[in-house]
Amino acid sequence: MVGKRKLIIMSKLAVYEKNDARKDLRKMSYYRHDYVYKRNMGLRLCFAMGSFIIIIFYMLHKFAIEEADIFALDIAAEAMTVVSIIVAMLLISSLLGTVKYNLEYEQATKRMKRYQTLLGLLEKGGAVKK
């Protein structure tokens, strides 16, 4: 017969396995630095592609709708402004991504340690810590 303590531990383990275990195992299969780097690289690539799409639409707007003359535009000045804005936004998004992905990895580590602790308690049949 299963005791009340073991039943509580098994239900906590089942809830974790149902909700977070698969995601946490995927995160924990990398070292922290590698996980953050991989996720940030994806963020940077998506940001760069989005920026280039916005730039293309902006230039099409300038040429097609406003019917601007290509020789009348100061392309170098506009390009430097756009590039500086993109670089600044890329740095900010990279910093925010690093903080976010480090926090995600840390939370996954805590949940995994709690899971391991509960497994040990289940094995020993010990008391439940909240």
Question: What do these coordinates show?
Answer:
The chain is mainly alpha-helical and 130 residues long. It has one domain (4-124). It is built from four helices and no strands. The protein has helices at 4-19, 21-28, 32-65, 75-124. The longest helix is centred in the C-terminal third of the chain and has 50 residues, at 75-124. It starts with a helix and ends in a 6-residue tail after the last helix. The relative contact order is 0.16. The model has no long low-confidence stretch (mean pLDDT 87).
Brief summary of the model shown:
The chain is an all-alpha fold and 130 residues long. Helices cover 83% and strands 0% of the residues. It contains four helices and no strands.
